[in-house]
Amino acid sequence: MINRPLTVLTALVSAFNLAAQDNPTSWYQNINADYSLQWQQRYYPQQGEPGQAQHYSSAAFSADWYWQSADRRHQLALQPYLRWDQRDNERNLLDLRQAYWQYVGDGFDIKAGVDIVFWGVTESQHLVDVINQTDAVASVDGETKLGQPMLNWNLHGSAGSLELYLLPYFRERSFAGPDGRLRPPFVVDQSQPQYESAQAERNLDFALRWSRRFAALELGLSYFEGNNREALLQPTAQNTLQPQRLQPQYLQMQQLGLDSLWLSGSWIWKLESIYRKTRQQDFVAATAGFEYTHVGLFGSNWDLGWIAEYQYDSRDQQAPVPGQNDIFVGGRFVVNDIGGTEILLGIAQDLDNSGSQSGKLEASTRLGNSSRLRLDAWFFRSDFNTDPLYLIRRDDFLQLSLDYYF
What pLDDT does residue 133 have? Predict the structure, then answer.
């Protein structure tokens, strides 16, 4: 799947050329360049419901170029990303995760181009994180994002920080193809998405966020209006010559968000909550919990953190996502060694259905100065056929990733 905002690359190249004209002898000496290669192997113990394979390989390449002027007022960033998948063509991706110019003034900064913006504080899910589209075929947790074209203006002062965003182009959500895993039983036809907005993907979305720190409390309030980043999947008209397919539909939405973080000794208390309104329905969702960390476990350099979060969604059993009345518990083990070894283990349990739960394992360590080894594992259990987890109950997987940096 090739994404269209790559035209921003032309503007960034022009900006680099302008910088060269202003200071032709030394501008390029301020460019920092980093590159990474990733090899990834997934293994599924069971075949998929429609009979998909059990072994999947993929590879990815990323380049990261960053330039800053001598007075540190101007920055240029460019980060192209390329991914290839052995079996699922819908995971093939050429994207710009970053391609922007930024000017930093006194108490403000302006950014124009493509970037990834993260909002949120909780571990198990990020309700308020709404600027970027999710790269849904990249990871199960939804934390991998696509680059978003934007014009961003930030104000900083004693009253806090105010972020304003104009988002002129919408990125469609990616879905697994016929040979992919972690998908509905019917293939999603991404060739003809439907939009509530007459401007479709060129609808001008708008977002703002105010944040401030009050001693040990960090508080954020946000608002978003525009194309919903989550798609409704509607059955297409039945054709006897073709199997049933699903068509994505993107409604307009308005969302109010609240996120807060309170530090108290070894405790971190977290909250994310949203109110979202669409033509179809209004609902409230929230995730709240804590993380408690034992520093220097048993007199060693090890740290052990305990995590507990409650997930609520007012749509109850009609919610199209897990987390409508669930509890997530987990632990984070940090070795504090030269390899930066970390292990995270967590389980989410549906409180309405004892037979519905999911779990994850994330572990990583550096192998020398230029590579990192990652191990990820997920399992899904559900005996309730209207539960979103029921659709992927055969998609437990183990994933090994090797990242090489140069």
Answer: 98
Residue 287: how many other CB atoms lie within 10 Å:
27
Q: How many domains does the chain have?
A: 1
CA Rg, the chain, in Å?
A: 22
CA distance 327 to 351: 7
User: Residue 292 maps to which CATH number?
Assistant: 2.40.160.10
Cβ neighbours for 375, distance < 8 A, ≥ 6 positions apart:
361, 362, 363, 364, 398, 399, 400, 401
Task: Label each residue of 253-264 as H, E or C.
Answer: EEEEEEEEEEEE
Read off φ and ψ for residue 379, nearest 5 degrees: -135, 150
- Tell me the C-alpha distance between 220 and 208, whole Å: 10
* Nearest Cα to Cα of residue 47 among 56, 38, 39: 56
Structural contact between residues 3 and 95, judged by C-beta atoms closer than 8 angstroms: yes
Residue with tokens 């200071």: 23
Q: Which positions of the chain have pLDDT values less than 70?
A: 1-29, 238-242
Predicted local distance difference test score (pLDDT) of residue 22: 53
Asked if 255 contacts 274 with a C-beta cutoff of 8 angstroms, the reply is yes
Q: How far is CA 266 from the centre of its chain?
A: 27
pLDDT of residue 49: 84
Q: Decide the pairing of beta strands 205-214 and 252-264.
A: unpaired
pLDDT of residue 384: 87
**Burial bucket for residue 100 (CB in 10 Å: 0-12, 13-18, 19+):** buried
DSSP 206: E
Question: Which CA distances in Å does 164 have to 11, 134, 198, 200, 212?
Answer: 22, 21, 24, 22, 15
141-186: pLDDT as tens digits: 999 999 999 999 999 999 999 999 999 999 999 999 999 999 988 8
φ, ψ (nearest 5 deg) of residue 370:
-125, 10
Q: Which pLDDT does position 298 carry in this prediction?
A: 86
Alpha-carbon distance of 111 to 134, in angstroms, equals 21
Amino acid at 186: F
Write down the pLDDT at residue 4: 52
CA atoms in the 13 A half-sphere facing the CB of 125:
22
Q: 261: domain range?
A: 4-405
Q: How far is CA 218 from the centre of its chain?
A: 22
